[in-house]
Amino acid sequence: MEIDGKTGLIGLIGNPVEHTLSPVIHNGISERMGINSVYVPFQVEKEGLEDAVKGAYALNILGMNVTVPHKNQVMEYLEDIDEAAGHIGAVNTLVRMKSPDSKDTPKAGYKGYNTDMLGLRRQIREDGISLNGKNTAILGAGGAAKAVVYMCLSEGAKTVYLLNRTVEKAEAVAKAMNAFYAKEVVIPMALQDYGKIDEKDLIVFQATSIGLAPDTDSAVLEDPEFYEKVSVGVDLIYNPADTKFMRLVTEHGGKAYNALKMLLYQGVIAYELWHDVKVPRDIVEDVYTDLKRKMYQKDNIVFIGFMGSGKTTVGKELAKRMKMDFLDTDSYIENRTGKSIPEIFAKEGEEAFRRLETEALQHLRDTVKNTVISTGGGMPLKRENAGLLKEIGRVYYLTAADSIIYERVKGDSDRPLLRGSNPYERIHELMKNRAPLYERAADIWVDTNCNDLEEVIARVKKDWAQFGNRIKEQL
Ligand code: ATR
After folding, report:
1. Ligand 1 atom with the shortest distance to the CA of 141
2. Burial of 183 from C-beta contacts in 10 A (0-12 / 13-18 / 19+)
3. Minimal CA–CA distance to 212: which of 126, 144, 124?
4. Which residues does the annotation mark as catalytic?
5. Does any ligand 1 atom lie closer than 6 A to the CB of residue 209?
6. Which residue out of 161, 208, 220 has the highest number of ligand 1 atoms within 8 Å of its CB and is therefore the one to mutate?
7. Is the pLDDT of residue 105 over 60?
8. How is 204-246 classified by DSSP, letter by letter?
9. Measured in angstroms, how far is the CA atom of residue 219 from the centroid of ligand 1?
10. What is the pLDDT of residues 170-194, one digit of tens each?
11. In angstroms, rounded to a whole number, what is the distance separating the alpha carbons of residues 318 and 371?
């Protein structure tokens, strides 16, 4: 993104801000949508908060996110506050209001929203979780829990059991929320009193900080009897991806989710408010892949490219030299299904094969590390697969000219896609269609026209070493 005189500024106020993932979301959207704005984190001390908000307005900053520890205090410095955010008592997004000389809104300042709550709502709706008429429970009664209580009530939950170590805090939150809704829907309890909940299909939100990395081996409640009551568990923590709370939920037959999508959507919703646009779905999905990569970066090397581009030869040799494991997705699928690839193509068709590839990638994403993976030539054609490959590792696209590919594969009778009278024409046609998809799926291109294994390996190793240093800095 080139910064010029028209570049708009958006940003984040918090303390600390070094580890924020929000730039990945906002700058990722701007870049993909071609919108000329840049997102920058600002570290702001408590004493400087008022000046920061006023200064942001004076600097014509379009909007701001606000994070810990300012979400509450910032409300004092706003011109207006969205109703939901007011009830929750926390604001994470400031949206610039019109200038004072506009007749309709004679206000100069920001309006505060709580897109954390809106983001969580979008996540659970998308995951097909309906709260209407359901019994819910929330573990914790801090700032995050309050937004969840509000969401449960606004989505029509029948009951919200609010469990907290300090029961007085749960009581205070319940009192305020029940008064607002003029119903006794929120029931405050001490954590250890969960036995009094006589329900079987609870939808539970984990809103304490217990289980957050590096303390990944604990959950705020660990008793099996509690989890027997749970059908769905949503952990507001997303680091690690799989928390102890989530493991306890699934071990007892429930479905578990972390809240990385909540992080994604709170950002997307803020972005939409600031720029008055709708972010298209495919861009949201790509940004989600970026987020997952940034958060759960894996140390695998993935090769994509046309048949004959050298994925297996280069992959095997590289793995040997770098003391990494090697895996070929075609062999992996053959082992799992007990059928050869030509057999799958002939009997079940290409669609079925592509589905097997997606399943294989989902499994690999959750299991492999320190591995070099060579993929089937058609693997990145499906958008979903391209996203999964990026989650698995750094993706190298081995390129070669049509004529070179033809020379490499012409004698090979095992290639189902090349059967026919004019294989060279076929290669040319396939390459033309596939090249843009490979390019899109790749992090790095490596030219293999030189036909020199040493040269190709040296190029990959050089990039991988630089990339490794960047990951180390990031962690
Ligand atoms: P946030 O804004 O993220 O919700 P918070 O307001 O500090 O953060 O709230 C943290 C929540 O985690 C609270 O519900 C807290 O319980 P208390 O109100 O009793 O303090 C809960 N929590 C933190 N550490 C805990 C622990 N060791 N055991 C049980 N609950 C804990």
Report:
1. 14
2. exposed
3. 144
4. 71
5. yes
6. 208
7. no
8. EEE-SSTT-TT-TT--S---HHHHTTEEEEEES--SSSS-HHH
9. 12
10. 999 999 999 988 889 999 999 999 9
11. 10
